[in-house]
Design brief:
mainly beta; 2 helices; 40% strand; nine-stranded antiparallel sheet; six-stranded antiparallel sheet; Beta-galactosidase, Chain A, domain 5
């Protein structure tokens, strides 16, 4: 475990980087700016190290980039249509992204743009904390958040999210790491994805859910048996609207059960595999359709489809759809909310 400082961030303080693990196994890098997961390397049996995440070129790129690389998302990950939802005393209006009618990932000054406190630091884990005041980006209630990254000896990473509020408020914390198990040498379209989801949310031209869940059977959204990501890429109107995959899937299996990974991702050379387990009911699959021009780790820029983001969460726009088959995304005052997502990496 190491802790280091770098250049000044927007608040005038240095960005702090935490490194967990060691060169003989899994090693991850994190920053207190956005509680971001900035790197993840795995030692292969032949002694080489493979980087599994997209990352920024330097700390300046971290502060400028708009792709949410590895960032913690909140108060509400994903989209809320028209930036509003029905509250106790009428419509609650949230902050929307510049040039957009919708709220994305908690608003233009979401948790990804914040300085997080390092509240605990050990050789195999770090805990970040954040206080979000009442009215932050339009959300009601003062919210207390903790995100804990834990590394195990058998190459598992657990992200543990906890939150409590003094008023009823939507909560949907997630992470926006972009995975490329080929070490970003190629795009992710030759990765193999298996997803235990029989239904997904179709979207309109502005990437807002149309309102009704649809069956994946007979569509490009069917990953139940597993397939190469590029097999049906851009083959239908849903993908053409999003320029690829940018869709939420309702899981058939979640609650963090070790016997049932929600998702399995394999590198194009089939040498590495990642299994994902989550307590959340949905995963949003985003094939990096707007990565073009993002400064890349090691120089140059990333290109579209060079990374795959997998957000474990409530279905997008959930505050406007209490009829969907999932628990409520509204956190009552005084109740402790928690979600866990685990990633298991292995060499095939």
């Amino acid at each position: 475990m190491t802790l280091s400082d770098s250049l000044l961030a927007a608040d005038g303080l240095p960005v702090r980087t935490v490194t967990l693990g060691h060169s003989a196994g899994l090693r991850l890098s994190l920053t207190d700016w956005g509680a971001s997961w900035s790197g993840c390397t795995l030692a292969l049996r032949d002694g080489r190290q493979r980087q599994l995440l997209l990352g920024y070129r330097d700390q300046r790129a971290l502060l400028r980039q708009q792709a949410f690389l590895g960032a913690s998302l909140g108060r509400f990950a994903n989209r809320i249509a028209q930036g509003r939802y029905p509250g106790v005393d009428g419509w609650v209006q949230l902050a929307c992204q510049p040039g957009s009618s919708h709220c994305l990932h908690g608003g233009p000054d979401g948790f990804d743009r914040r300085r997080w406190q390092i509240r605990a630091l050990r050789a195999d884990e770090v805990c970040f904390g954040l206080e979000s005041p009442d009215g932050d980006q339009g959300f009601p209630g003062a919210l207390e958040v903790e995100i804990r990254y834990q590394l195990s000896a058998d190459n598992e990473i657990t992200i543990d999210y906890r939150a409590s509020s003094d008023a009823l408020t939507p909560i949907n914390l997630s992470n926006h790491a972009y995975f490329n198990l080929d070490e970003a040498a190629h795009d992710i379209l030759n990765h193999h994805l298996q997803l235990t989801a029989s239904r997904y949310l179709p979207i309109d031209q502005e990437l807002i859910p149309l309102g009704m869940l649809a069956d994946v059977a007979g569509t490009s959204m069917d990953f139940r048996a597993g397939k190469r990501l590029g097999l049906d890429f851009l083959s239908d109107e849903q993908q053409q609207r999003a320029h690829g995959y940018d869709h939420a899937f309702l899981l058939d299996c979640h609650a963090g059960a070790r016997s049932c990974p929600a998702l399995t991702l394999a590198s194009s050379d089939r040498r590495l595999q990642m299994e994902l387990f989550t307590s959340m009911p949905a995963i949003h699959v985003y094939s990096g359709n707007y990565l073009q021009g993002t400064p890349a780790r090691g120089g140059g820029v990333y290109h579209n489809q060079q990374g795959l983001a997998l957000e474990t969460e409530w279905l997008p726009d959930s505050p406007n759809h209490p009829e969907w088959p999932q628990p409520s995304c509204l956190l009552p005052a005084g109740v402790r909310w928690r979600q866990q997502t685990r990633y298991r990496f292995s060499e095939c």
